[in-house]
Amino acid sequence: MKPRSVAWGRQVLPPATLFLLGLAIALPLWGPGLLNTRGGGDSPFLLLRVHQLTADLRAGHFPARWMPDAAYGLGYPFFSYYAALPYYLAALLHLVGIDLLSAVKLTQTAFSVAAALTAYGWTRRHFEGRAAPWLVGAAYAVAPFHLVNLYVRGDSLSEFAAFAFYPLVLWGLDRLGERPQVRRTALPALAYGGLILTHNVSALIFSPFALL
User: Fold this and answer.
1) Count of domains in the chain?
2) 84-99 exposure pattern, b = at least 16 Cβ within 10 A, e = fewer
3) How much is the pTM?
């Protein structure tokens, strides 16, 4: 019989290292100022969107619909058309006193970590041992398109964050398929709802695959 500490270590080590991998992926974000993506042309939109969403929340508007200072001060109904859940997270961080730039970086970092962990959690159901799920989580976290959204496209916070929800939806559907119960509908429903609110176009593309 293995010592309890050894068994506990083997159980905790894979998700712990994936947590650190998620942090490492986001580490370049934490240099001075705003990361230069496409010559600095895209990332500033993140700050604008979070700033305007924060202004809406401070004015008592929920859900936020309008970017009051966009379009040269004329306003723009951005949040009526674009899923904004990650921006709400960044705005809440800003509302509690974290500066605007750090709030955006913390949100990006959180979703970098979440993507690795949710992929690991889902694949743990399909493989014995932890090596294969760990490799899946690591490969998922460093997938080229995932990193392109963060470091090339720059303003694709919602599409980047959506990667954390795909495994959660599949995880919930797996559990529901194994034992159809009303209480087991909560995870897939919340995960799919979170995906829609995070990036509605990604939800549209992902839905046929989830139905399979």
Assistant:
1) 1
2) bbbbbbbbbbbeeeee
3) 0.90
